[in-house]
Amino acid sequence: MKEIDTDVLVAGAGPCGLMLANELGRRGIRTLVVDPKPGTAFNPQANATQARTMEHFRRLGFAEEIRAQGLPADHPTDIAYFTRYTGYELARLSLPTAADAVRNVKKMGGSWSAAELPHRVSQKFVEAVLRRHAQAHASNDVRFGWKLAEFEDRGDHVAAVVQPVDGGEPRRVRARYLVGADGPRSLVRATLGIPWGGATGVRRDFMGGLMFAVYLRAPGFYDVFPHARAWMYVSVNPERRAFMASVDGRSEFAFHAAVHEGENAEAWTEADARRVFAQALGREIAIEVLSFGTWTAGHSLVAQSFQRGRVFIAGDAAHLFTPTGGLGYNTAVEDAVNLGWKLASVLQGASPPALLDSYEPERKPLALRNTGYAKQFADSVGLYMARPVLEEDSAAGEAARADAGVHLGGHVRMEFNIPGVTFGGRYDASPVIVGDGSTPPPDAANSYVPSACPGGRPPHAWLADGRSLFDTFGRDWTLLALGPQPPATEAFTRAASALALDLQVVHHADPALRDLYEAPLALVRPDQIVAWRGHDASQAGTVLRRASGG
Q: Residues 370, 301: contact at Cβ < 8 Å?
Protein backbone atom coordinates (compact mmCIF):
# COMPACT_ATOMS: atom_id res chain seq x y z
CA MET A 1 0.00 0.00 0.00
CA LYS A 2 1.49 3.37 -1.01
CA GLU A 3 2.02 5.95 1.73
CA ILE A 4 1.21 9.66 1.83
CA ASP A 5 3.32 11.79 4.14
CA THR A 6 1.63 14.97 5.34
CA ASP A 7 1.60 17.41 8.22
CA VAL A 8 -2.14 17.44 8.93
CA LEU A 9 -4.78 14.93 7.90
CA VAL A 10 -8.30 16.41 7.99
CA ALA A 11 -11.30 14.07 7.90
CA GLY A 12 -14.27 16.01 6.56
CA ALA A 13 -14.59 18.75 3.94
CA GLY A 14 -17.57 20.70 5.20
CA PRO A 15 -17.18 24.33 6.29
CA CYS A 16 -14.94 23.37 9.23
CA GLY A 17 -12.57 21.11 7.31
CA LEU A 18 -12.34 23.44 4.32
CA MET A 19 -11.79 26.49 6.52
CA LEU A 20 -9.02 24.61 8.31
CA ALA A 21 -7.46 23.78 4.94
CA ASN A 22 -7.50 27.48 4.08
CA GLU A 23 -5.88 28.46 7.37
CA LEU A 24 -3.18 25.80 6.97
CA GLY A 25 -2.72 26.22 3.23
CA ARG A 26 -2.03 29.95 3.41
CA ARG A 27 0.79 29.13 5.86
CA GLY A 28 2.29 26.42 3.65
CA ILE A 29 1.36 23.47 5.87
CA ARG A 30 1.04 20.18 3.99
CA THR A 31 -2.59 19.19 4.45
CA LEU A 32 -4.57 16.20 3.18
CA VAL A 33 -8.36 16.58 3.34
CA VAL A 34 -10.64 13.60 2.68
CA ASP A 35 -14.42 13.46 2.47
CA PRO A 36 -16.58 10.57 1.22
CA LYS A 37 -19.05 12.90 -0.50
CA PRO A 38 -18.56 13.37 -4.25
CA GLY A 39 -18.26 17.13 -3.81
CA THR A 40 -19.41 20.10 -1.77
CA ALA A 41 -22.98 20.21 -0.50
CA PHE A 42 -25.92 19.99 -2.91
CA ASN A 43 -28.52 20.72 -0.24
CA PRO A 44 -28.62 24.25 1.22
CA GLN A 45 -28.04 23.22 4.89
CA ALA A 46 -26.97 26.21 7.03
CA ASN A 47 -28.32 29.52 5.74
CA ALA A 48 -26.80 32.32 7.83
CA THR A 49 -23.20 33.51 7.97
CA GLN A 50 -22.67 35.62 11.06
CA ALA A 51 -20.67 38.85 11.03
CA ARG A 52 -17.70 37.38 12.88
CA THR A 53 -17.46 34.58 10.32
CA MET A 54 -17.61 37.19 7.56
CA GLU A 55 -14.74 39.03 9.26
CA HIS A 56 -12.67 35.85 9.06
CA PHE A 57 -13.57 35.47 5.39
CA ARG A 58 -12.46 39.09 4.93
CA ARG A 59 -9.17 38.29 6.68
CA LEU A 60 -8.62 35.46 4.20
CA GLY A 61 -9.50 37.71 1.28
CA PHE A 62 -12.80 36.34 -0.01
CA ALA A 63 -15.59 38.05 1.96
CA GLU A 64 -16.73 39.93 -1.16
CA GLU A 65 -16.87 36.67 -3.09
CA ILE A 66 -19.05 35.12 -0.37
CA ARG A 67 -21.30 38.20 -0.21
CA ALA A 68 -21.92 37.95 -3.95
CA GLN A 69 -23.35 34.44 -3.48
CA GLY A 70 -26.94 33.47 -2.68
CA LEU A 71 -29.63 36.12 -2.76
CA PRO A 72 -29.51 38.97 -5.27
CA ALA A 73 -27.85 42.05 -3.78
CA ASP A 74 -31.16 43.92 -3.47
CA HIS A 75 -33.22 41.04 -2.05
CA PRO A 76 -34.70 41.57 1.45
CA THR A 77 -33.22 39.51 4.27
CA ASP A 78 -36.22 39.90 6.59
CA ILE A 79 -37.42 37.13 8.89
CA ALA A 80 -41.22 36.96 8.83
CA TYR A 81 -43.86 34.87 10.60
CA PHE A 82 -47.25 33.91 9.17
CA THR A 83 -50.16 31.68 10.09
CA ARG A 84 -49.51 30.25 6.64
CA TYR A 85 -47.51 31.85 3.90
CA THR A 86 -50.69 32.91 2.10
CA GLY A 87 -52.44 33.66 5.40
CA TYR A 88 -51.97 36.34 8.04
CA GLU A 89 -48.60 37.96 8.75
CA LEU A 90 -47.83 37.86 12.47
CA ALA A 91 -44.40 39.47 12.93
CA ARG A 92 -41.38 40.60 10.95
CA LEU A 93 -37.80 41.70 11.56
CA SER A 94 -36.56 43.88 8.70
CA LEU A 95 -32.86 43.51 7.94
CA PRO A 96 -30.57 45.07 5.31
CA THR A 97 -30.04 43.60 1.88
CA ALA A 98 -26.55 42.47 0.91
CA ALA A 99 -26.06 45.78 -0.92
CA ASP A 100 -27.32 47.72 2.10
CA ALA A 101 -24.93 45.81 4.36
CA VAL A 102 -21.95 46.98 2.32
CA ARG A 103 -23.21 50.57 2.29
CA ASN A 104 -24.27 50.68 5.94
CA VAL A 105 -21.42 48.88 7.70
CA LYS A 106 -19.24 52.01 7.90
CA LYS A 107 -22.06 53.89 9.60
CA MET A 108 -22.65 51.29 12.30
CA GLY A 109 -21.45 51.80 15.85
CA GLY A 110 -21.79 50.33 19.32
CA SER A 111 -22.76 46.66 19.28
CA TRP A 112 -22.54 46.52 15.49
CA SER A 113 -19.21 48.24 14.93
CA ALA A 114 -17.70 45.66 12.61
CA ALA A 115 -15.66 45.12 9.49
CA GLU A 116 -18.51 43.01 8.08
CA LEU A 117 -22.23 42.54 8.71
CA PRO A 118 -24.00 39.15 8.54
CA HIS A 119 -24.83 37.60 5.18
CA ARG A 120 -27.74 35.32 4.35
CA VAL A 121 -26.30 32.66 2.11
CA SER A 122 -26.79 28.92 1.88
CA GLN A 123 -23.92 26.72 3.00
CA LYS A 124 -23.74 25.08 -0.43
CA PHE A 125 -22.45 28.35 -1.90
CA VAL A 126 -20.01 28.97 0.97
CA GLU A 127 -18.53 25.49 0.69
CA ALA A 128 -17.88 25.95 -3.03
CA VAL A 129 -15.90 29.15 -2.36
CA LEU A 130 -13.99 27.59 0.53
CA ARG A 131 -13.11 24.58 -1.63
CA ARG A 132 -11.90 26.71 -4.51
CA HIS A 133 -9.58 28.73 -2.28
CA ALA A 134 -8.38 25.68 -0.33
CA GLN A 135 -7.40 23.90 -3.54
CA ALA A 136 -5.52 26.98 -4.76
CA HIS A 137 -2.88 26.44 -2.05
CA ALA A 138 -0.05 24.26 -3.36
CA SER A 139 0.42 22.53 0.00
CA ASN A 140 -3.20 21.28 0.11
CA ASP A 141 -4.46 17.96 -1.25
CA VAL A 142 -8.29 17.99 -1.12
CA ARG A 143 -9.88 14.65 -2.03
CA PHE A 144 -13.63 14.25 -2.29
CA GLY A 145 -14.79 10.66 -2.75
CA TRP A 146 -12.18 9.50 -0.20
CA LYS A 147 -12.83 8.46 3.38
CA LEU A 148 -10.82 7.92 6.52
CA ALA A 149 -10.99 4.19 7.21
CA GLU A 150 -8.87 3.87 10.38
CA PHE A 151 -6.17 5.63 12.35
CA GLU A 152 -3.83 5.17 15.30
CA ASP A 153 -1.95 7.78 17.34
CA ARG A 154 1.58 6.35 17.62
CA GLY A 155 2.96 9.07 19.84
CA ASP A 156 5.26 10.80 17.38
CA HIS A 157 2.79 10.68 14.45
CA VAL A 158 -0.65 9.47 13.43
CA ALA A 159 -0.86 6.43 11.16
CA ALA A 160 -4.04 6.26 9.12
CA VAL A 161 -5.61 4.58 6.12
CA VAL A 162 -7.71 6.50 3.60
CA GLN A 163 -9.51 4.93 0.68
CA PRO A 164 -11.69 5.88 -2.26
CA VAL A 165 -15.37 5.18 -1.64
CA ASP A 166 -15.67 3.63 -5.11
CA GLY A 167 -13.40 0.77 -4.07
CA GLY A 168 -10.10 2.02 -5.44
CA GLU A 169 -6.72 1.34 -3.88
CA PRO A 170 -6.38 2.58 -0.27
CA ARG A 171 -3.40 4.61 0.92
CA ARG A 172 -1.51 4.66 4.16
CA VAL A 173 -1.07 8.14 5.62
CA ARG A 174 1.64 9.28 7.97
CA ALA A 175 0.55 12.61 9.50
CA ARG A 176 1.89 14.74 12.30
CA TYR A 177 -1.69 15.50 13.40
CA LEU A 178 -5.24 14.39 12.61
CA VAL A 179 -8.34 16.59 12.82
CA GLY A 180 -11.79 14.99 12.79
CA ALA A 181 -14.16 17.46 11.18
CA ASP A 182 -16.28 14.52 10.10
CA GLY A 183 -19.70 15.47 11.39
CA PRO A 184 -22.07 14.28 14.12
CA ARG A 185 -21.43 10.59 13.42
CA SER A 186 -17.69 11.21 13.57
CA LEU A 187 -15.49 8.16 13.08
CA VAL A 188 -12.69 10.08 14.77
CA ARG A 189 -14.68 10.84 17.93
CA ALA A 190 -16.07 7.30 18.05
CA THR A 191 -12.62 5.73 17.64
CA LEU A 192 -11.26 7.91 20.44
CA GLY A 193 -14.21 6.87 22.63
CA ILE A 194 -15.16 10.46 23.46
CA PRO A 195 -18.78 10.63 24.70
CA TRP A 196 -21.26 13.46 24.24
CA GLY A 197 -22.33 15.64 27.13
CA GLY A 198 -25.48 17.73 27.21
CA ALA A 199 -29.07 17.17 26.15
CA THR A 200 -30.71 15.43 23.22
CA GLY A 201 -34.19 14.20 22.40
CA VAL A 202 -35.81 17.44 23.61
CA ARG A 203 -39.42 17.57 22.44
CA ARG A 204 -41.04 20.83 21.41
CA ASP A 205 -44.04 21.74 19.28
CA PHE A 206 -41.46 23.12 16.83
CA MET A 207 -37.64 22.78 16.58
CA GLY A 208 -37.62 19.81 18.93
CA GLY A 209 -37.96 16.32 17.45
CA LEU A 210 -38.03 14.98 13.92
CA MET A 211 -38.01 17.54 11.09
CA PHE A 212 -38.73 16.96 7.41
CA ALA A 213 -36.46 18.87 5.03
CA VAL A 214 -37.30 19.61 1.39
CA TYR A 215 -35.06 21.40 -1.09
CA LEU A 216 -37.50 22.61 -3.69
CA ARG A 217 -38.05 24.84 -6.67
CA ALA A 218 -41.32 26.83 -6.66
CA PRO A 219 -41.36 29.32 -9.56
CA GLY A 220 -44.93 30.31 -8.73
CA PHE A 221 -44.43 31.05 -5.02
CA TYR A 222 -44.28 34.82 -5.33
CA ASP A 223 -47.34 34.83 -7.63
CA VAL A 224 -49.49 33.59 -4.73
CA PHE A 225 -47.56 35.12 -1.83
CA PRO A 226 -49.52 38.23 -0.72
CA HIS A 227 -46.91 39.83 1.57
CA ALA A 228 -43.60 41.67 1.24
CA ARG A 229 -40.72 39.36 0.38
CA ALA A 230 -38.43 38.06 3.12
CA TRP A 231 -35.46 35.73 3.39
CA MET A 232 -36.87 33.46 6.11
CA TYR A 233 -40.55 32.48 6.11
CA VAL A 234 -41.99 30.80 9.23
CA SER A 235 -45.45 29.23 9.38
CA VAL A 236 -47.22 29.16 12.75
CA ASN A 237 -50.38 27.04 12.75
CA PRO A 238 -51.45 23.84 14.52
CA GLU A 239 -51.52 21.77 11.33
CA ARG A 240 -47.91 22.33 10.25
CA ARG A 241 -45.14 24.42 11.80
CA ALA A 242 -42.32 25.10 9.34
CA PHE A 243 -39.58 27.48 8.33
CA MET A 244 -38.31 28.15 4.82
CA ALA A 245 -35.23 30.06 3.66
CA SER A 246 -34.88 31.51 0.19
CA VAL A 247 -31.83 30.00 -1.49
CA ASP A 248 -31.52 32.10 -4.66
CA GLY A 249 -34.13 34.85 -4.18
CA ARG A 250 -36.08 33.59 -7.16
CA SER A 251 -37.47 30.07 -7.02
CA GLU A 252 -35.33 27.81 -4.84
CA PHE A 253 -36.14 27.30 -1.15
CA ALA A 254 -34.93 25.21 1.79
CA PHE A 255 -38.12 24.10 3.56
CA HIS A 256 -38.17 22.40 6.99
CA ALA A 257 -41.37 21.18 8.64
CA ALA A 258 -42.06 19.77 12.09
CA VAL A 259 -43.15 16.12 12.13
CA HIS A 260 -45.98 15.25 14.52
CA GLU A 261 -46.10 12.31 16.90
CA GLY A 262 -47.44 9.29 15.04
CA GLU A 263 -46.30 10.44 11.59
CA ASN A 264 -43.79 8.18 9.81
CA ALA A 265 -41.78 10.81 7.95
CA GLU A 266 -39.03 8.30 7.18
CA ALA A 267 -41.45 6.70 4.70
CA TRP A 268 -42.66 9.96 3.14
CA THR A 269 -42.41 10.39 -0.61
CA GLU A 270 -42.32 13.32 -3.03
CA ALA A 271 -46.11 13.42 -2.80
CA ASP A 272 -45.83 13.90 0.96
CA ALA A 273 -43.27 16.67 0.40
CA ARG A 274 -45.80 18.49 -1.80
CA ARG A 275 -48.57 17.89 0.74
CA VAL A 276 -46.59 19.19 3.71
CA PHE A 277 -45.39 22.24 1.78
CA ALA A 278 -48.99 23.02 0.81
CA GLN A 279 -50.00 22.89 4.47
CA ALA A 280 -47.48 25.59 5.34
CA LEU A 281 -48.27 27.63 2.24
CA GLY A 282 -52.02 27.46 2.70
CA ARG A 283 -52.76 26.23 -0.82
CA GLU A 284 -51.33 23.99 -3.52
CA ILE A 285 -48.95 25.18 -6.21
CA ALA A 286 -46.63 23.32 -8.56
CA ILE A 287 -43.22 22.62 -7.06
CA GLU A 288 -40.18 20.65 -8.14
CA VAL A 289 -38.75 18.54 -5.32
CA LEU A 290 -34.96 18.56 -5.63
CA SER A 291 -34.26 16.47 -2.52
CA PHE A 292 -35.91 15.54 0.78
CA GLY A 293 -35.14 13.75 4.02
CA THR A 294 -35.39 13.93 7.80
CA TRP A 295 -33.21 15.34 10.55
CA THR A 296 -33.59 15.76 14.30
CA ALA A 297 -33.87 19.06 16.16
CA GLY A 298 -33.44 19.26 19.91
CA HIS A 299 -29.70 18.66 20.30
CA SER A 300 -27.50 20.61 22.70
CA LEU A 301 -24.49 18.31 22.70
CA VAL A 302 -20.82 19.01 23.33
CA ALA A 303 -18.11 16.36 23.30
CA GLN A 304 -16.49 15.81 26.68
CA SER A 305 -13.04 16.23 25.15
CA PHE A 306 -11.80 17.95 21.99
CA GLN A 307 -8.32 16.42 21.91
CA ARG A 308 -6.53 13.16 22.56
CA GLY A 309 -2.80 13.37 21.92
CA ARG A 310 -2.20 14.23 18.28
CA VAL A 311 -5.87 13.94 17.35
CA PHE A 312 -8.47 16.72 17.53
CA ILE A 313 -12.17 17.01 16.78
CA ALA A 314 -13.96 20.12 15.54
CA GLY A 315 -17.25 21.31 14.08
CA ASP A 316 -20.23 18.95 14.30
CA ALA A 317 -17.90 16.19 15.48
CA ALA A 318 -17.35 18.25 18.65
CA HIS A 319 -20.70 19.99 19.15
CA LEU A 320 -24.21 19.46 17.82
CA PHE A 321 -26.81 22.20 17.80
CA THR A 322 -30.46 22.76 17.18
CA PRO A 323 -29.96 25.22 14.32
CA THR A 324 -31.76 28.20 15.85
CA GLY A 325 -29.57 31.28 15.51
CA GLY A 326 -27.44 29.56 12.86
CA LEU A 327 -24.74 28.91 15.44
CA GLY A 328 -23.53 25.43 14.52
CA TYR A 329 -21.85 26.33 11.22
CA ASN A 330 -20.42 29.59 12.55
CA THR A 331 -19.03 27.91 15.67
CA ALA A 332 -17.44 25.26 13.43
CA VAL A 333 -15.69 27.91 11.34
CA GLU A 334 -14.19 29.48 14.46
CA ASP A 335 -12.99 26.05 15.62
CA ALA A 336 -10.97 25.88 12.41
CA VAL A 337 -9.69 29.43 12.77
CA ASN A 338 -8.54 28.72 16.34
CA LEU A 339 -6.88 25.40 15.59
CA GLY A 340 -5.39 26.36 12.24
CA TRP A 341 -2.87 28.97 13.37
CA LYS A 342 -1.87 26.86 16.38
CA LEU A 343 -1.12 23.76 14.29
CA ALA A 344 0.85 25.89 11.85
CA SER A 345 2.86 27.61 14.61
CA VAL A 346 3.81 24.25 16.15
CA LEU A 347 4.62 22.60 12.83
CA GLN A 348 6.78 25.57 11.77
CA GLY A 349 8.69 25.40 15.05
CA ALA A 350 7.62 28.81 16.37
CA SER A 351 5.59 27.30 19.23
CA PRO A 352 6.01 24.22 21.42
CA PRO A 353 3.40 21.45 21.14
CA ALA A 354 1.93 22.73 24.42
CA LEU A 355 0.23 25.51 22.43
CA LEU A 356 -2.17 22.88 21.09
CA ASP A 357 -3.31 22.13 24.63
CA SER A 358 -5.06 25.53 24.58
CA TYR A 359 -7.52 24.44 21.85
CA GLU A 360 -9.93 22.61 24.15
CA PRO A 361 -9.88 25.17 27.03
CA GLU A 362 -10.69 27.87 24.49
CA ARG A 363 -13.21 26.18 22.22
CA LYS A 364 -15.12 23.85 24.56
CA PRO A 365 -16.48 26.69 26.77
CA LEU A 366 -17.56 28.50 23.60
CA ALA A 367 -19.34 25.37 22.37
CA LEU A 368 -21.17 25.07 25.71
CA ARG A 369 -22.06 28.77 25.58
CA ASN A 370 -23.30 28.68 21.99
CA THR A 371 -25.31 25.45 22.30
CA GLY A 372 -26.92 27.06 25.35
CA TYR A 373 -27.92 30.12 23.37
CA ALA A 374 -29.30 27.95 20.54
CA LYS A 375 -31.40 26.00 23.06
CA GLN A 376 -32.72 29.25 24.51
CA PHE A 377 -33.79 30.42 21.05
CA ALA A 378 -35.37 27.03 20.26
CA ASP A 379 -37.35 27.08 23.51
CA SER A 380 -38.60 30.58 22.76
CA VAL A 381 -40.10 29.68 19.38
CA GLY A 382 -40.66 25.94 19.81
CA LEU A 383 -42.56 25.97 23.11
CA TYR A 384 -44.95 28.63 21.82
CA MET A 385 -48.19 26.81 21.02
CA ALA A 386 -49.93 27.57 17.74
CA ARG A 387 -53.66 27.49 18.50
CA PRO A 388 -56.45 27.11 15.90
CA VAL A 389 -57.87 30.52 16.86
CA LEU A 390 -54.88 32.16 15.14
CA GLU A 391 -56.51 31.51 11.77
CA GLU A 392 -60.03 32.60 12.70
CA ASP A 393 -61.53 35.58 10.88
CA SER A 394 -63.01 36.91 14.11
CA ALA A 395 -62.35 39.28 16.98
CA ALA A 396 -60.89 36.36 18.94
CA GLY A 397 -58.63 35.51 16.01
CA GLU A 398 -57.50 39.11 15.69
CA ALA A 399 -56.67 39.24 19.40
CA ALA A 400 -54.78 35.93 19.22
CA ARG A 401 -52.74 37.18 16.27
CA ALA A 402 -51.90 40.37 18.13
CA ASP A 403 -50.65 38.31 21.08
CA ALA A 404 -48.68 36.06 18.74
CA GLY A 405 -47.15 39.13 17.14
CA VAL A 406 -45.90 40.38 20.49
CA HIS A 407 -44.31 37.04 21.37
CA LEU A 408 -42.85 36.34 17.93
CA GLY A 409 -41.70 39.93 17.49
CA GLY A 410 -39.75 39.63 20.71
CA HIS A 411 -38.47 36.21 19.76
CA VAL A 412 -37.21 37.17 16.30
CA ARG A 413 -35.13 39.99 17.76
CA MET A 414 -33.76 37.65 20.41
CA GLU A 415 -32.73 35.02 17.83
CA PHE A 416 -31.60 37.11 14.88
CA ASN A 417 -30.22 40.35 16.35
CA ILE A 418 -27.37 38.73 18.26
CA PRO A 419 -24.21 40.86 18.23
CA GLY A 420 -23.38 39.57 21.72
CA VAL A 421 -23.35 35.95 20.54
CA THR A 422 -21.53 36.90 17.36
CA PHE A 423 -18.77 39.09 18.78
CA GLY A 424 -18.80 38.40 22.52
CA GLY A 425 -17.20 34.96 22.71
CA ARG A 426 -14.17 35.00 24.99
CA TYR A 427 -11.19 32.85 26.03
CA ASP A 428 -10.78 34.16 29.56
CA ALA A 429 -9.69 30.82 31.05
CA SER A 430 -7.10 30.14 28.35
CA PRO A 431 -3.53 29.36 29.40
CA VAL A 432 -2.22 31.47 26.48
CA ILE A 433 -4.14 34.66 27.26
CA VAL A 434 -2.19 37.18 29.34
CA GLY A 435 -4.80 38.85 31.53
CA ASP A 436 -4.45 42.37 32.85
CA GLY A 437 -6.79 42.13 35.83
CA SER A 438 -9.66 43.85 34.07
CA THR A 439 -13.19 42.46 34.00
CA PRO A 440 -14.79 41.80 30.61
CA PRO A 441 -18.28 43.13 29.86
CA PRO A 442 -21.23 40.85 30.71
CA ASP A 443 -22.07 38.19 28.15
CA ALA A 444 -25.49 38.92 26.62
CA ALA A 445 -26.95 37.56 23.39
CA ASN A 446 -28.48 40.76 22.07
CA SER A 447 -25.92 43.37 23.04
CA TYR A 448 -22.16 43.61 22.75
CA VAL A 449 -19.82 46.05 24.45
CA PRO A 450 -16.51 46.36 22.56
CA SER A 451 -13.61 45.72 24.91
CA ALA A 452 -9.89 45.10 24.52
CA CYS A 453 -9.85 43.12 27.77
CA PRO A 454 -7.51 40.24 26.80
CA GLY A 455 -9.29 37.11 25.61
CA GLY A 456 -11.85 38.58 23.23
CA ARG A 457 -12.30 40.08 19.78
CA PRO A 458 -10.40 43.35 19.28
CA PRO A 459 -12.65 46.43 19.29
CA HIS A 460 -13.31 47.50 15.71
CA ALA A 461 -13.15 50.96 14.19
CA TRP A 462 -13.22 52.53 10.74
CA LEU A 463 -10.13 54.62 10.03
CA ALA A 464 -10.10 58.13 8.60
CA ASP A 465 -8.87 56.77 5.25
CA GLY A 466 -11.91 54.46 4.99
CA ARG A 467 -10.14 51.22 5.89
CA SER A 468 -11.23 48.84 8.61
CA LEU A 469 -8.82 48.72 11.55
CA PHE A 470 -8.81 44.95 11.06
CA ASP A 471 -7.48 45.38 7.51
CA THR A 472 -4.28 46.87 8.96
CA PHE A 473 -3.50 43.82 11.07
CA GLY A 474 -0.61 41.57 10.05
CA ARG A 475 -1.17 38.09 8.64
CA ASP A 476 -0.22 36.49 11.93
CA TRP A 477 0.74 38.45 15.06
CA THR A 478 0.02 42.17 15.35
CA LEU A 479 1.19 44.67 17.96
CA LEU A 480 -1.03 47.73 17.92
CA ALA A 481 0.76 50.90 19.02
CA LEU A 482 -1.98 53.45 19.60
CA GLY A 483 -2.13 57.18 20.18
CA PRO A 484 0.08 60.08 19.10
CA GLN A 485 2.99 59.06 21.34
CA PRO A 486 2.87 55.29 21.99
CA PRO A 487 5.58 53.55 24.02
CA ALA A 488 8.63 52.09 22.30
CA THR A 489 7.93 48.71 20.69
CA GLU A 490 11.43 47.47 19.86
CA ALA A 491 11.39 44.98 22.72
CA PHE A 492 8.45 43.19 21.09
CA THR A 493 10.18 43.19 17.71
CA ARG A 494 13.34 41.66 19.20
CA ALA A 495 11.40 39.06 21.21
CA ALA A 496 9.33 38.05 18.20
CA SER A 497 12.46 37.61 16.11
CA ALA A 498 14.04 35.44 18.79
CA LEU A 499 10.90 33.28 18.95
CA ALA A 500 10.51 33.10 15.14
CA LEU A 501 7.08 34.72 15.36
CA ASP A 502 5.79 36.73 12.42
CA LEU A 503 4.94 40.00 14.23
CA GLN A 504 3.90 43.22 12.56
CA VAL A 505 3.89 46.46 14.55
CA VAL A 506 1.03 48.72 13.43
CA HIS A 507 0.93 52.36 14.52
CA HIS A 508 -2.30 54.37 14.65
CA ALA A 509 -1.93 57.89 16.01
CA ASP A 510 -5.64 58.61 16.49
CA PRO A 511 -6.17 59.12 20.25
CA ALA A 512 -9.69 57.73 19.87
CA LEU A 513 -8.22 54.29 19.16
CA ARG A 514 -6.04 54.49 22.24
CA ASP A 515 -9.15 55.37 24.24
CA LEU A 516 -11.10 52.53 22.62
CA TYR A 517 -8.44 49.99 23.64
CA GLU A 518 -7.85 51.67 27.03
CA ALA A 519 -4.10 51.16 26.57
CA PRO A 520 -1.45 52.23 24.07
CA LEU A 521 -0.30 48.68 23.29
CA ALA A 522 -2.33 45.61 22.37
CA LEU A 523 -1.11 42.23 21.08
CA VAL A 524 -3.51 40.61 18.60
CA ARG A 525 -3.21 36.90 17.77
CA PRO A 526 -3.40 35.39 14.28
CA ASP A 527 -7.09 34.57 14.89
CA GLN A 528 -7.77 38.23 15.74
CA ILE A 529 -8.11 37.77 19.50
CA VAL A 530 -6.51 40.18 21.97
CA ALA A 531 -3.77 38.19 23.72
CA TRP A 532 -2.42 41.03 25.90
CA ARG A 533 -2.60 44.78 26.36
CA GLY A 534 -0.44 47.11 28.36
CA HIS A 535 1.26 50.45 28.80
CA ASP A 536 4.87 49.51 28.03
CA ALA A 537 6.95 46.77 26.43
CA SER A 538 9.00 45.82 29.47
CA GLN A 539 7.57 42.27 29.59
CA ALA A 540 7.59 41.70 25.84
CA GLY A 541 9.50 38.41 25.93
CA THR A 542 7.36 36.92 28.69
CA VAL A 543 4.15 38.03 26.99
CA LEU A 544 5.04 36.61 23.59
CA ARG A 545 6.32 33.31 24.99
CA ARG A 546 3.12 32.73 26.94
CA ALA A 547 0.79 33.87 24.15
CA SER A 548 2.53 31.53 21.69
CA GLY A 549 2.39 28.56 24.05
CA GLY A 550 5.81 28.75 25.67
A: no
